[in-house]
Amino acid sequence: MLFGFLSSCFPSQPEPSCAFCDATKENGFNVQYEDVDYIVLNDRSPAALHHMLVIPRKHVVSIKALNASDAGMLRDMERIGTERLDVLDVPQGQRLMGFHIPPFNSVDHLHLHVFGLPWRSGLKHAKYPFRAGSNGDVKGWTWFVEIEQAINILESGRRVQVKPC
């Protein structure tokens, strides 16, 4: 499709109905950091002692929309999340970062969950289940993928899915 190809040559436009495309202090968001490409917000319903979202300003629907060429963006998001946790003095063993995989996401705009543990409750923790892969898969069957798992999946030429990949 020619027009689809041409649209990929131009910067992504904000989606009118996307809450994260309009994420600013002026719109009531608790902004912790921002630069030209990313913004970091405190989560409105924190699951852990520290719970932030690293969001690309460019509208990307979800982790499922990414391919190998997007691994650098995920590394940038991971670096920013790590820097924010460093500012908060969160010990290495108390850190977790990852993405919900559609249809188990709440906002259709890519956002990296950045946690400084402990969890606020067992119920909150249950929303972010880690599953290691087996039999050659990077991750197991789960609706949450950790950042390193996502990068490894993309760099191997695969796509992130709920099923093992």
List its salient traits:
single chain; 22% helix; 165 residues; alpha+beta; 4 helices; disordered N terminus; globular; HIT family, subunit A
Description:
The chain is of the alpha+beta class and 165 residues long. A hairpin with a 3-residue loop joins strand 1 (31-34) and strand 2. The model is unreliable at 1-11 (pLDDT under 50). The protein has a 6-stranded antiparallel sheet. The protein has one domain (16-155): HIT-like (HIT family, subunit A, 2-Layer Sandwich), CATH 3.30.428.10. The protein is built from 4 helices and 6 strands. 22% of the residues lie in helices and 21% in strands. The longest helix has 17 residues, at 71-87.
**Strand runs, count:** 6
Number of domains: 1
**CATH homologous superfamily?**
HIT-like
Question: Count of helices?
Answer: 4
Strand content: 15-25%
CA radius of gyration? 16 Å
Query: How much helical structure, as a percent, in the residues?
Result: 10-25%
- CATH architectural arrangement: 2-Layer Sandwich
Poorly predicted runs of 5 or more residues:
1-11
Question: What is the string of helix and strand elements?
Answer: HEEEHEEHEH
Q: Record the strand order, biggest sheet.
A: 1-2-3-5-4-6
Give the rounded overall mean pLDDT. 90
Q: What class, by secondary structure content? A: alpha+beta
Distance separating the two termini = 29 Å
Shape: globular
> What is the fold named in CATH at topology level?
HIT family, subunit A
CATH class (first level) name: Alpha Beta
Biggest sheet character: 6 strands, antiparallel
